[in-house]
Design goal:
Strand content: 25-35%
CATH topology: Ribosomal Protein S5, domain 2
Number of helices: 10
Radius of gyration: 19 Å
InterPro entries: GHMP_kinase_C_dom, GHMP_kinase_C_sf, GHMP_kinase_N_dom, IspE, Ribosomal_Su5_D2-typ_SF, Ribsml_uS5_D2-typ_fold_subgr
Keywords: ATP-binding, Isoprene biosynthesis, Kinase, Nucleotide-binding, Transferase
Protein name: 4-diphosphocytidyl-2-C-methyl-D-erythritol kinase
CATH architecture: 2-Layer Sandwich
Helix content: 25-40%
Bound molecules: 4-diphosphocytidyl-2-C-methyl-D-erythritol, adenosine-5'-triphosphate
GO molecular function, one term: 4-(cytidine 5'-diphospho)-2-C-methyl-D-erythritol kinase activity
Family: Belongs to the GHMP kinase family. IspE subfamily.
Shape: globular
CATH class: Alpha Beta
Order of helices and strands: EEEHHEHHHEEEHHHHEEHE
Length: 303
């Protein structure tokens, strides 16, 4: 199956891309009173990911199916996002628009075609959530600004705003302060060691460095991204999940810049030569995918 994502440049399309992300760098610069951590991270969006098929209905219902049966429950972020947007439309829009929305009795039938690993650090759930918000905003003719959708998304997951706004970016705060950041054309091999890692568990590890020195966006250019970069969670995850360490060591033999994305378990290596990446992918003993980095999300390209 070809999971490289086409741009959504036709308003009548009912297929909507949910790109993956990689954290090219990730560090924690502080912690909030509510326990959430302030991060500094460079997010690279990819041209690879899940897809949502959406059919608009007029029965006020949100119906959801998923190619992965274990994700078909009502706690799926797609359903939660659709319901939250519906509530927002009814309660928060000015009277006229809210009334109009209720009169149309908008609903949707949504199918998620899942290819991204769950708990893999590539942001699959957050991207599904963001695409649901952006797509239904258009299909339900709500005309809410992306910033409003990003605020709604933040209440569902810290990684949702970047997927809503749609640019590879330098990300601060818990994930809501975004500065678009242009990255050079690069190919990535993403290796999936097969472990499902709980993000909350990694964030609560006492060994995590929580007080790294913050940098400014100006310092970023000196970091030699996407090749150089560090992930403050990598050593902790490798200690707890030997399969992640094994896959990382394997990948490092071919590309010394290999590292982990997010809270794991996926690992990636950047390449400026696509053929070289393909050669290494063909020798990989774990499931893996090849992707190209993009500065604008396939969800937004052509919108
Ligand atoms: C590690 C990253 O993937 C880097 O991109 C993200 O920061 C994680 O973002 P996410 O998966 O959208 O995270 P959420 O679903 O919002 O949060 C899961 C759990 O991780 C912890 N969490 C998350 C984000 C953050 N900045 N600080 C945290 O402490 C919280 O305990 C939270 O309950
Ligand atoms: N549509 C969805 N796709 C994947 N996971 C979902 C979805 N909806 C809810 N979840 C739940 O969210 C959790 C994390 O999923 P996800 O795959 O996004 O993790 P991740 O790739 O590690 O994300 P991140 O990099 O943002 O931490 C899973 O435990 C899963 O049960």
């Amino acid at each position: 199956m070809n999971n490289h994502l086409p741009s959504n440049n036709d308003a009548s399309l009912t297929t909507w891309p949910c790109p993956a992300k990689l954290n090219l760098s990730l560090k924690i610069v502080g912690q909030r009173d509510n326990g959430y951590h302030n991060l500094q991270s460079v997010f690279q969006l990819l041209d690879y990911g899940d897809k949502l098929n959406i059919e608009v209905t007029r029965n006020g219902q949100i119906n959801f199916t998923c190619s992965a049966p274990e994700l078909s429950g009502t706690d799926n972020l797609v359903i939660r996002a659709a319901k939250k947007l519906r509530e927002f439309a009814i309660n928060q829009l000015d009277n006229q628009s809210g009334k109009q929305f209720a009169e149309k009795n908008w609903g949707a039938f949504i199918h998620l075609d899942k290819v991204l690993p769950v708990g893999g650090g590539v942001g699959g759930g957050s991207s599904n959530c963001a695409t649901t918000l952006v797509a239904l905003n258009q299909l339900w003719q709500l005309e809410l600004p992306l910033k409003t959708l990003a605020d709604i998304g933040l209440s569902l997951g810290a990684d949702v705003p970047i997927f809503v706004m749609g640019n590879s970016a330098f990300v601060e705060g818990i994930g809501e302060i975004l500065t678009p950041f242009e990255l050079p054309k690069t190919w990535y091999l993403v290796v999936q060691p097969g472990c499902h890692i709980s993000t909350a568990k990694i964030f609560s590890n006492p060994l995590l460095t929580r007080n790294s020195k913050a940098i400014t966006i100006r310092d970023l250019n000196a970091l030699e991204l996407p090749f150089q970069g560090t992930n403050c969670m990598q050593d902790i995850v490798c200690d707890d999940y030997p399969e992640v360490r094994k896959a990382l060591e394997w990948l490092k033999q071919f590309n010394s810049y290999a590292r982990m994305t997010g809270s794991g378990s996926c690992l990636f290596a950047p390449f400026d030569n696509e053929q070289e990446m393909r050669k290494i992918a063909s020798r990989c003993e774990w499931p893996c995918f090849e992707a190209s980095g993009v500065n604008i999300s396939p969800l937004h390209a052509g919108m």
